[in-house]
Amino acid sequence: MSLLLGRRSLVSRRLNIPFFLRTFSSSRPTFSKLEGISETPQERQLPEHAVISTFDLFSIGVGPSSSHTVGPMRAGKIFITDLKELQLLKKVATVKINLYGSLAATGKGHHTPQAILLGLEGSDPETIIPTTIESRYNNILANKVLLLGGDHLIHYDMDRDMLWRWDQVLPTHPNGMRFSAFDEDGDLLATNEYYSVGGGFVVNDKTQVDENLFYKGVDKSVVPPARLHQTHSLTEPTLNSPSPEPSPSSRSSQHNDDTIPNAEAGPPHPFESGNSLLALTQKHNMTIAQIVYDNEKSFGYSDEDIHKKIFRIWSVMDECIQTGVTTNATTLPGRLGLRRRAPILYRRLMRGFYPGIMSPPSNNARIEAGSNPSETFGGSIDAPKSSSEKFNQSKQGSSFETIGARIVDPAIPSAKRAPRVIGAFDHPLLPEPPRKTMIPAVDFLSCYAIAVNEVNASGGRIVTSPTNGAAGVIPAVLKYIIEFVSDDPDKSIMTFLLTASAIGMLFKRGSTISAAEGGCQAEVGVACSMAAGGFAACMVSSPETVLQAAEIGIEHNLGLTCDPIDGLVQVPCIERNSLGAVKAVTAAQLSLASHGVYSVTLDEAIEAMRLTASDMSVKYKETSLSGLATTVKIPLTVPAW
Predict the structure, then answer these.
(1) SS3 category, 178
(2) Are 563 and 524 in contact (CB under 8 A)?
């Protein structure tokens, strides 16, 4: 991305340099101070087609937010990469960082400072070790030093060098940030503004037509040409410009004896709407997943590359679920002190599947699909230890009560006595007795989704799908398919993720996947729609039914607001992913039962979402200025335990 360069006298006219010296308040923002901000988004042009790479829509990063953590970290590294290319890095003595709008309003709870500073040190969201983030950040704060690019040490004072302008929004997007580098004399060496537009994508106002709007690379010299530029972009094509040399894999890739078009020609099956995508599937007699697969080959990926990348994405998703349900940590970081629920939910579900709690443990005590997925993606989650195993390990120094043939640990309150019946017994309407209820689809979907989002909330490794705040919906639904539905997990993974990505592309082009632009409908709503379409595709549905499932998924999330308590991706975000996963399966089932009869198309629903986002108050767009963020008292009025 291009940097604005110049001496102090030149830049002071462009940027009003004394602005860097303004003081700011760290107090909680109020909406009255944002009244001058226009809530009407600027009219925007759309690319002529929606096709981007699946591996840009689904990318590996860290929590808790794709727009407030992953995007800013990537922006920091892009800035440093550009300084290196311009041979300016060694001259830098000071870096000033300005955060605007939603980034400033909820950035602290979303770990935006950590992300930017570690990005400036050269870290990348996909490769950074999540457990090192906090210690590295604390070291920067304590020692007031920043290692730019990993090899150039400068002085950095967080209180002086990072300014939080939550009362100001830059024109292009609510998630704006400005980086400026100065030399020892205070002269400005370079500056640039970046916008984190959702899903980890980062754009620059002057270059968003062709850079980082369609790909997530940091160094564009190593990004395949077809991902770097859309053939049908916002500008007229340059007829006489030299075309990039096609990659060897794109030359050799074939489908039905036809060579897949190379980077010069763009994707073989461009689509800009649900209707055009449906027309392509009918014209070529292909599924949506097959359409996306062939488009990926035009980006320079071979069949082996596509397979490896898809399963790498699923591997991280699956590992995230396993981490979430097996962790020993009891609470999430932050002032809410929110208790982790995924491990408890999972243990309860396992007791339902393994009722013989006195039987000896078995190596086969695990959930499996029709074929053993552990051979493919690294193992299933083991069942919890049986009570007899716990008893044998704990009988020394512990006292147990015996109720019938069942051993009860008195340390567990629920095991001491029968559940209490609530209500009066001398009333004409007797109270309902306690019942154990377990609906496998709902319970497992909830458990998986909550597990992923608890890992995300703690800053763990995550897949943006399509964002981090909504990262639990798609893995939960896919995990459920693999464990309980599919007889061919490998094919289901490919079909599900490629189909879901096509739907995500339509939302990215036609509306938004950024909560700062559209509220939570742009995150959990879009993820629900993508998962519904993916689920329907795995049920061998027609492309029309798949798009209908996606439409139902978003239609019943329209208007969903983003008002995170204390700016943390915890409440209501974690539970909302659970409900999003359940809604996705329900939407798919409704579409399957509708036999092609429906009233609203996916394109109409996407346009409705765009209009809803346009009309939505900025208070409900990831700013924590209203809704739950203001009605819930901290510490919580209801204990988090």
Answers:
(1) strand
(2) no
Summarize pLDDT for 591-603 with one digit per residue, the tens. Answer: 999 988 889 999 9
Cβ neighbour number for residue 77 with a 10 Å cutoff:
23
CA proximity to 15, closest of 23, 26, 7, 27: 7
Are the C-beta atoms of residues 401 and 390 closer than 8 Å to each other? no
Question: Is 251 a residue whose pLDDT tops 60?
Answer: no
Q: Which residues make beta-bridge pairs with 333?
A: none
- Reported as type and span, the H/E element at residue 5 is strand 4-5
CA-to-CA dists, residue 480 to 229, 446, 492, 517, angstroms: 36, 10, 11, 31
Enumerate the H helices of 431-572 as residue ranges.
Answer: 440-457, 473-480, 489-510, 515-518, 524-538, 543-555
Report residue 104's pLDDT band, with 50, 70 and 90 as the boundaries.
Answer: very high
Place of tokens 């900025």: 618
**Alpha carbons 272 and 509: distance in angstroms, whole number:** 8
Cβ 52 vs Cβ 298: under 8 Å: no
Output Rg (C-alpha) for the chain, integer angstroms. Answer: 26
> Using one digit for the tens of pLDDT, what is the confidence trace for 424-476?
788 787 777 666 555 666 899 999 999 999 999 999 999 999 999 999 999 99
**DSSP secondary structure letters along 547-612:** HHHHHHHHHTTTT--B--GGG-S-TTHHHHHHHHHHHHHHHHHHHHHHTT--S--HHHHHHHHHHH
- Residue 313: enclosing H or E segment and its boundaries? helix 303-326
Cβ contacts of residue 121 below 8 Å, gap of 6+?
76, 136, 146, 147, 148, 149, 150
Distance CA 272, CA 381 (A): 40
Nearest Cα to Cα of residue 511 among 579, 558, 478: 558
Residue 61 sits at φ, ψ, to 5 deg, of: -155, -155
Neighbour tally for 348: CB within 10 Å: 14
Amino acid in the structure at residue 394 = S
Q: What type of residue is 377?
A: F
**β-pairing verdict for 258-259 and 401-403:** unpaired
pTM over 0.85: no
